[in-house]
């Protein structure tokens, strides 16, 4: 099997070819330009039958996905696929204790409900092995044909759940939680140090909407942007919209956030829309905590 190789910092440039019926030998070594065969090894790898592989792992383009079969079990490499219990008894024991705690205790944090078996199977699947930076059809790595299908399926289902027209709406299902999702919106709409207004954290707001103390900027939002909180009327427990309007006229934010973490009431969206429009600001709704109610049409 002819091979030409070269090494760059942190990456391998390697062109491969395998004709029909050919196979990789056990533990071959791909030499780099510095003659360090120990840097890169292919161990117990056999090309699939009738494989015809032609590709290059080169800078500036995604590498090809090469179909191969890998020997399993205890082979000459000494590799064994242990269970967590056998590989790391200490970690296995701690996870078991947490499982017992969850089953024996009454959890009063609503968002920590039990995850279904189906979800556990999905998040604990072989998908964890795959790099998938980018968007469907626009990845930086090869071998993402099924990842693309999965992400596109999630996007379609999200739009259907909220009854949104895919011709008018887009959806990004990649953020792992609410805080990075919020920051994604900020960086899409704002420039560094643009001004943001969100509900004050001690009044039920979310940390990702910005929070500062007299001595330091606690939230990353308040580090990369300039944040000013609006607050509740402590006599009524409702957002003080009159004060919000006055503060917005003085502070002139580029973005106003409707949404909270520990505020058990709905927002006056028409009033907030009017305030935002009056100063030329974006109005963002962070509905992470009520998204299920929105999808169900309750609110």
Automatic annotation (TrEMBL):
The keyword Membrane does not apply. Residues 84-299 form the Serine hydroxymethyltransferase-like domain. GO terms for molecular function: glycine hydroxymethyltransferase activity; methyltransferase activity; pyridoxal phosphate binding. Its EC number is 2.1.2.1. GO terms for cellular component: mitochondrion. Pfam families: SHMT. The keyword rRNA-binding does not apply. GO terms for biological process: glycine biosynthetic process from serine; methylation; tetrahydrofolate interconversion. Pathway: One-carbon metabolism; tetrahydrofolate interconversion. It catalyses: (6R)-5,10-methylene-5,6,7,8-tetrahydrofolate + glycine + H2O = (6S)-5,6,7,8-tetrahydrofolate + L-serine. Coiled coil: none annotated. Catalyzes the interconversion of serine and glycine. Belongs to the SHMT family. This is glycine hydroxymethyltransferase. It comes from Anthurium amnicola. The gene is GLYM_1.
């Amino acid at each position: 099997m002819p091979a030409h190789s070269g090494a760059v910092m942190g990456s391998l440039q390697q062109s491969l070819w395998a004709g029909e019926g050919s196979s990789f030998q056990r533990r071959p070594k791909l030499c780099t330009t510095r003659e360090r065969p120990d840097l890169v090894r292919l161990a117990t790898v056999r090309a699939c039958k009738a494989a015809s592989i032609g590709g290059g792992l080169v800078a500036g383009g995604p590498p090809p996905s090469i179909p191969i079969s890998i020997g399993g079990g205890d082979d000459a490499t000494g590799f064994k696929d242990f269970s967590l219990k056998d590989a790391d008894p200490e970690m296995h024991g701690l996870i078991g204790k947490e499982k017992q705690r969850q089953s024996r205790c009454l959890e009063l944090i609503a968002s920590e409900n039990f995850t279904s078996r189906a979800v556990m199977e999905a998040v604990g699947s072989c998908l964890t092995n795959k790099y998938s930076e980018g968007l469907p059809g626009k990845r930086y790595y090869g071998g993402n044909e099924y990842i693309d299908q999965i992400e596109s399926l999630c996007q379609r289902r999200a739009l259907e759940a909220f009854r949104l027209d895919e011709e008018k709406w887009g959806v990004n299902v990649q953020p792992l939680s609410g805080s990075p999702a919020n920051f994604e919106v900020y960086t899409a709409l704002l420039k560094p140090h643009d001004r943001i207004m969100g509900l004050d954290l001690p009044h039920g707001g979310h940390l990702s909407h910005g929070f500062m103390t007299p001595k330091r900027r606690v939230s990353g939002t308040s580090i990369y942007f300039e944040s000013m909180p609006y607050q509740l009327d402590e006599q009524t427990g409702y957002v003080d919209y009159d004060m919000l309007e006055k503060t917005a006229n003085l502070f002139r934010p580029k973005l106003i956030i409707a949404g909270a973490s520990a505020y058990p009431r709905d927002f006056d969206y028409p009033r907030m829309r009017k305030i935002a429009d009056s100063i030329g600001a974006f109005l963002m709704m962070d509905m992470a905590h009520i998204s299920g109610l929105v999808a169900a049409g309750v609110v």
